[in-house]
Write a structure and sequence with these properties.
Number of helices: 1
Strand content: 35-45%
Helix content: under 10%
Largest sheet: 7 strands, antiparallel
Radius of gyration: 26 Å
Number of strands: 17
Order of helices and strands: HEEEEEEEEEEEEEEEEE
Structural class: mainly beta
Length: 240
């Protein structure tokens, strides 16, 4: 089959313009690339400017993620986040940095900290910031709003720790487990002046050890002085 010179010239022109148009589209956007051994890479192309969430094009499991900020995107410090199948942020590492959001910085891939994981969603948000040191800590807040009394203590992860308090009376306890703490279900306990565990309730749960789980404070069965706070990764639910 023969083609006219006019048709061939038009075809050549169309081909020549295709690649620059595609490149321009990428230059204005954020590319998030998920990859891992034995799985095809999955790419998400998101617009810059506002918070945007996109379902992962395939679930994985993946072991790496990379953000590529387009050269025309003004905010070069843009950060993104990936969620697992439970909707929780996946912790990633690159060099000395551990975080639940990740940047480009021209430094390549971030590695999933714990293990290969399926990804449900990719989120990019201009308000995301690099996480601070407190994200690796466990904080315990004791309060009694009736007498405007409150104290807070900080614990490290991964080991049993005790801190003497020796004051009160308190009415509630709240546990805050930092986003980078590996054992997110870490539990803590408080003892009264007799050295006995204090019983507290949250919703339908009554216990003598208390978790975070983003569900707020636990209320003591009765106001009590607190002699000691104990946080221990070996604590389990259902001890009351």
């Amino acid at each position: 089959m023969q083609y006219s010179s006019v048709f061939l010239a038009a075809l050549a022109a169309t081909t020549a313009f295709a690649a620059p148009w595609q490149q321009s589209s990428i230059d204005d956007k954020l590319q998030v690339v998920l990859s891992g051994p034995g799985v095809s890479p999955a790419q998400s192309l998101l617009p810059a400017g506002n918070r945007v969430a996109q379902q992962a094009s395939q679930p994985g499991p993946f072991s790496f993620v990379e953000l590529r900020v387009g050269k025309n995107v003004q905010n070069k410090d843009y950060r993104c986040q990936i969620l697992d199948q439970a909707g929780k942020p996946i912790v990633v590492q690159r060099g000395a940095n551990t975080d639940i959001t990740f940047a480009d910085g021209g430094k390549g891939k971030w590695t999933f900290r714990n293990q290969a994981s399926q990804v449900s969603q990719v989120i990019c948000d201009p308000t995301f910031k690099k996480i601070d040191a407190s994200a690796s800590e466990i904080r315990v807040q004791l309060s009694n709003q009736g007498i405007e009394l409150g104290i807070q203590r900080t614990f490290k992860e991964g080991q049993r720790q005790e801190q003497v308090i020796g004051t009160g009376p308190f009415r509630t306890i709240e546990i805050f487990v930092g986003a980078l703490v590996q054992k997110q279900d870490t539990r803590c306990q408080v003892l009264d002046n007799a050295g006995k565990p204090i019983v507290a309730t949250r919703g339908a749960n009554t216990d003598i050890t208390f978790s975070d789980a983003d569900k707020g404070e636990w209320t003591f069965a009765q106001e009590s002085d607190v002699s000691k706070i104990i946080c221990d990764p070996a604590f389990k639910a259902g001890s009351a």
